[in-house]
Amino acid sequence: MSKIHKKTKLSCMICDEIIDLSDIIILHKTSRQTHSLCINCCIGYLQPILQNTLNNIRINIRKDITIKCPGTYHSLLRNKCKHVLSLRNITINISTLSHDILRIKHLLSNDNSYICPTENCTQNIICVAPEYFGDMLKCHDGCQITWCKHCFTTPFHYGKSCIEFEVDNKNSENGKFIFDMKSKGHLKFCPQCKAPCIKTEGCNKMICSVCNIIWCWLCLTSNINYDHYNTNLSGSCTGKLWESKLEYLN
After folding, report:
1. Taking the alpha carbons of 146, 121, 118, 59 in that order, is the dihedral positive or negative?
2. Where are the domains of the chain?
3. What's the confidence (pLDDT) of residue 172?
4. What does the alpha-carbon distance between residue 89 and residue 83 come to, in Å, rounded to a whole number?
5. Among 147, 192, 198, 199, which one has the highest count of C-beta atoms within 10 angstroms of its own C-beta?
C-alpha cells in the first residue's frame, strides 16, 4: 500500500469515521486524496450495485459495470469526485462482496455462462458448452429448474417458440397484439423453425429468412415448389399462388 495522503488520512468517505489500517478499503487515489471506505460502508455502498448487476445478467443484460466513487474533495460537496471504477478491475477482500464480484467477473467474461433464475439456488452459475445451440437451460446440479435463454420463461416452453408462447399466454401487451394479428391471418409461423412471418399481399410461396425452408402460406406445407399451386393438380391451394391484397390490421 502506498502512502496515505495526509489530508484525508484514514477517514471513510461516507461515514467520515477514522478507519483502522487493517480494515481500510481504498477505492482509488487522486493527486490530493486517498478515497477510502470502512468495511460497513463499503458493503452498504456496493452490495445493491452488485445485486442489481446479477439481476441484469439473469436476463442476459451483460455490460461492463462502472461504479462511481462516493468521495468528495475533502468535504467540498461542489467538487464531487468524478472518478469511476470498472467492476472488472475491482478486487475487494470482503467475503460478503468478493463472492458476488468473482461471479460477475466470470459471467461478463464468458457468454456461455448463465445464472440460475432461482435467487437462492446454491448452484447459481450454469456453464454451457460452446457447441450447444439449444434454447433450453437447466440447473442440473441445483434446483433442477428449466428456462429459456432468450425470453427467460420458466419452466421452459417445450415445443413452442418464444413468440408462440407469448401469443398463447397473452400475458403482455405485445402478446395480445401478436395474438390479434394471428387471429386475423396477418401473422403465421414457419412450419420448421417457428419464426414469425407477416404477409399483407403477394405470393403465397414463402422462404423463411431464418432457416431458408420454402413453405406455403395457405396450408403451411413445407418443401414445396411452384407445382404446389399448379392448376392441373387437385388441392386446396390450386391456382392460389397469388392472391389479392389482405386488409392489414382491421
Report:
1. negative
2. 1-109, 113-154, 181-243
3. 67
4. 14
5. 147
Interval 31-40 mean pLDDT: 81
Q: What are residue 231's DSSP bridge partners?
A: none
pLDDT given at position 232: 65
Residue 35 near residue 81 (C-beta atoms within 8 A): yes
Contact 178, 196 (CB under 8 A): yes
In tens, the pLDDT along 71-105 reads 765 555 555 777 888 887 787 888 888 888 888 88
Distance CA 160, CA 115 (A): 23
Give this prediction's pTM: 0.60
User: For a pLDDT cut of 90, what percent of the chain falls above it?
Assistant: 2
All 3 cell numbers of residue 172?
403482455
The answer to whether residues 132 and 148 touch, using CB atoms and an 8 Å cutoff, is no
Banded model confidence at residue 183, pLDDT cuts 50, 70, 90: confident
Backbone angles phi, psi at 56, to 5 degrees: -65, -40
Q: Is 164 within 8 Å of 176 (Cβ atoms)?
A: no
Q: Which residues of 75-101 are buried (b: 16+ CB within 10 A; e: fewer)?
A: eeeeeebebeeebeebebebeebeebb
Cβ-based neighbours of 20, under 8 Å, separated by 6 or more? 10
